């Protein structure tokens, strides 16, 4: 007869018991073996890597100069066309991309090929403020010394040149935010009583019957496309979004009961946060979304802000229909369009503060 206890988990070795075979402490595997890089062994490889880093930083400099060429050499005035504006945007975008990419890739390549890559391990230590400061100071000194920036003059000079030039494009952009810019320009648009609503960009008038439930139209004032001067500026101020809802879903405030027509409403397309174009309409929720910073506006509540950084509702354009059934404006906007700081500046100017 065999052993009756065969297979019993309390006596069989086929099942591990608690504590059986446990290791009291994990063994420290130690640091992996150091593999020197080619630049560590061959001075010619190190010099070649240094030149590669300098080339990448020079690309950053070229990108910054390309940005300035697009910013200053291409004028924007009343005669500016869409193609000219697109060319400038390409130059600004490519210039900024190369300026940032050149510095980023150059520094990474520098660290991977020339800076020391030895492995170290140190024990945790108690944090003491003064000791911590001294350790941090020592670490910074060691990093500067090990980076080789003091002895590698070619990298040092190209890095300084690329870094100094890279901060200039933002300064150039902020230059346009001058305090001398009159905020009153956003207080009035091309909309006026009787102006027909037209599709953007075709410029064809819109009849109320064309606007179905759930639809959304990008709208400009009729005649905008015929302008020869200030066309882009006027469009930037005047463009609106046109939607049709069930009239029972709208909740107009007192005095705005006749600003819509059979559930058709029109609101400024310019986000009241920083002026991005509000471009997405959710038919089921009746929400308008700004793609830049996710500000969300409720069309049923006069486009009040329900999410995001925008601080006020989108301005509403009062509309009605004419005798031919075309949608027309009742008047201009009753408040400045655009970011909220424009409105505050305008009000301060009008009040003399």
Automatic annotation (TrEMBL):
Domain Rieske span(s) in chain numbering: 264-328
Membrane spanning residue stretches: 53-74, 90-111, 154-174
Primary role: Iron-sulfur subunit of the cytochrome bc1 complex, an essential component of the respiratory electron transport chain required for ATP synthesis. The bc1 complex catalyzes the oxidation of menaquinol and the reduction of cytochrome c in the respiratory chain. The bc1 complex operates through a Q-cycle mechanism that couples electron transfer to generation of the proton gradient that drives ATP synthesis.
Family, as annotated: Belongs to the Rieske iron-sulfur protein family.
Keywords: 2Fe-2S, Cell membrane, Disulfide bond, Electron transport, Iron, Iron-sulfur, Membrane, Metal-binding, Oxidoreductase, Respiratory chain, Transmembrane, Transmembrane helix, Transport
Protein name: Cytochrome bc1 complex Rieske iron-sulfur subunit
Chain intervals for the UniProt region annotation (Disordered): 1-45
Topology term for the membrane: Multi-pass membrane protein
PROSITE patterns: RIESKE
Gene3D superfamilies given in the database record: Rieske [2Fe-2S] iron-sulphur domain (2.102.10.10)
């Amino acid at each position: 007869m065999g052993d009756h206890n065969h297979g019993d988990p309390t006596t069989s070795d086929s099942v591990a018991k608690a504590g059986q075979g446990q290791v009291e402490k994990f063994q420290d595997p130690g640091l992996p073996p150091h593999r020197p890089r080619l630049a560590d062994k061959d001075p010619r490889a190190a010099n070649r890597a240094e030149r590669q880093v300098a080339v990448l930083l020079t690309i950053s400099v070229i990108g910054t100069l390309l940005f300035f060429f697009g910013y200053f050499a291409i004028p924007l005035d009343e005669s500016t066309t869409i193609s000219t504006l697109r060319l400038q945007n390409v130059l600004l975008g490519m210039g900024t991309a190369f300026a940032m990419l050149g510095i980023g890739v150059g520094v990474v390549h520098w660290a991977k090929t020339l800076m020391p890559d030895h492995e170290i391990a140190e024990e945790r230590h108690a944090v003491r403020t003064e000791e911590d400061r001294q350790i941090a100071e020592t670490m910074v000194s060691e990093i500067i010394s090990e980076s080789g920036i003091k002895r590698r003059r070619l990298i040092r000079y190209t890095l300084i040149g690329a870094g100094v030039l890279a901060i200039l494009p933002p300064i150039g952009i902020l230059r346009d935010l001058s305090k001398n810019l009159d905020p009153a320009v956003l207080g009035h648009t091309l909309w006026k009583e009787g102006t027909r609503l037209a599709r953007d960009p075709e410029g064809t008038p819109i009849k109320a019957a064309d606007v179905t439930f759930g639809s959304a139209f990008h709208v400009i004032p009729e005649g905008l496309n015929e302008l020869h001067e200030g066309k882009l500026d006027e469009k930037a101020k005047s463009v609106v979004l046109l939607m049709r809802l069930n009239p029972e879903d709208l909740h107009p405030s007192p005095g705005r009961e006749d600003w819509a027509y059979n559930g058709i409403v029109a609101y400024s397309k310019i986000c009241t946060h920083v002026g991005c174009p509000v471009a997405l309409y959710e038919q089921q929720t009746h929400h308008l979304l700004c793609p830049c910073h996710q500000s969300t506006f409720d069309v049923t509540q006069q486009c009040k802000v329900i999410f995001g950084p925008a601080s006020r509702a989108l301005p509403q354009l009062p509309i009605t229909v004419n005798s031919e059934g075309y949608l027309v404006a009742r008047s201009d906007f009753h408040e400045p369009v655009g970011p909220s700081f424009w409105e505050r500046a305008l009000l301060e100017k009008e009040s003399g503060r």
